[in-house]
Write a structure and sequence with these properties.
- By secondary structure, the protein is an alpha/beta fold.
- It folds into 2 domains: about 200 residues, NAD(P)-binding Rossmann-like Domain (Rossmann fold); about 90 residues, UDP-galactose 4-epimerase, domain 1 (Alpha-Beta Complex), CATH 3.90.25.
- It has 12 helices and 12 strands.
- It has a 7-stranded parallel β-sheet, sandwiched between helices.
- β2, α2 and β3 form a beta-alpha-beta unit.
- α1 packs across α8, α3 runs parallel beside α5 and α7 packs parallel to α9.
- Bound molecules: serine.
- The site of serine (SER) has 10 residues, from loops.
């Protein structure tokens, strides 16, 4: 891994993965790419930055060739809630974009392609309590179908075409640098902004909606550690469950209130997001990732809440 391209570099995960990769591999060796979202100063000026539309094969392929890329972290994606109303663009990005990256990976004999699946790859028929790595999937969202496609196509390119494609099923990711808004799990980020700014939050999911979640530093380690794992230890490719914590809006609100005693929460359920959340598991069994490449998360709910309040209060200039 000497020359890395990150697609979707301006998004929630890309904005934090790119600086970590630049620290590890040298800033000049990590090319950040985005399309519609404006890059932060850090992403744009901390190393090479290019505009790439992943839905255009020539653009992605030329970028890989021109920058002599050997590894791609493919993060560009339209998240679950937005994809339901923007099906055509979601299809182009989530299906065609992925296929373009993998085909270009074969054409350019890339060493590795990292892809991202999600808890969205599961559906209402999936056992939700401690979802096994291998189980019924059958998602009922456009986004979830694209994530099953990501896993199956990633596995196909690995096994049939010899391209080393690896990926994890990420849960809801919580972070303070870039605020995500297009997903179903994003309430768990927004709640911190509103708690610090207004002491009050109206939650679009019901109080007892339990979902798997992860703090950003663990998501970055999951991707970078899987990328570094010894290939001969891996029996799976693009479909590893990774788990860190699970909580409900009510439990998260209580954890915030124990640090910010004036915080209040009310619920105004958004049927779209609630329907999506109800079709997803509560918690994933990640034994396969632990056994094959040593996955282990560091952050639980208390560590996450402390760190979010500390960093976000500085970012928002709020005294706590
Ligand atoms: N966080 C994502 C979403 O809610 C799940 O992969 O869309």
């Amino acid at each position: 891994m000497n020359r890395i391209l990150v697609t979707g570099a301006c998004g929630q995960i890309g904005s934090e993965l790119v600086p970590e990769l630049r620290n590890k591999y040298g800033a000049e060796n990590v090319v950040a790419s985005g399309h519609i979202t404006t890059p932060s100063e850090d992403i744009k000026n901390g190393g090479p930055y290019i505009e790439v539309d992943v839905t255009n094969y020539e653009e992605i392929n030329e970028s890989i060739k021109h920058h002599k890329i050997d590894t791609v972290y493919h993060l560009a994606s339209i998240l679950s809630a937005l994809a339901e109303s923007k099906r055509r663009i979601a299809y182009e990005v989530n299906f065609t974009g992925l296929n373009n990256v993998l085909e270009s990976g074969v054409e350019n004999k890339l060493e590795r392609v990292m892809v991202v699946s999600s808890i969205g790859a599961f559906g209402p028929e999936t056992p939700g309590a401690n979802t096994p790595n291998e189980t019924i999937q059958k998602p009922t969202t456009h986004y979830g179908i694209s994530k099953v496609f990501t896993e199956l196509l990633g596995n196909y390119f690995s096994v049939k075409l010899g391209l080393d494609v690896r990926g994890v099923r990420l849960p809801g990711i919580i972070s303070w640098k870039v605020e995500p808004t297009a997903g179903t799990t994003d309430y768990a980020v927004e709640i911190f902004y509103k708690a610090l700014q207004n002491n009050y939050y109206v939650c679009p999911l019901g109080p007892d909606t339990r979902l798997p979640m992860m703090y950003m530093p663990d998501a970055i380690s999951a991707l970078m550690n899987l990328a570094d794992a010894e290939g001969t230890n891996l029996k799976h490719h693009a479909d590893f469950n990774v788990n860190a914590m699970s909580f409900t809006p009510k439990e998260l609100a209580e954890a915030i209130r124990s640090r910010l005693p004036d915080f209040r929460i009310e619920y105004d359920i958004d049927p779209l997001r609630q329907g999506i959340a109800d079709s997803w598991p509560d918690k994933l069994d990640d034994t396969v990732a632990r056994d094959e490449w040593g996955w282990s998360p560091k952050f639980g709910l208390d560590e996450l809440v402390d760190d979010m309040i500390k960093n976000l209060s500085i970012k928002l200039n709020q005294k706590v």
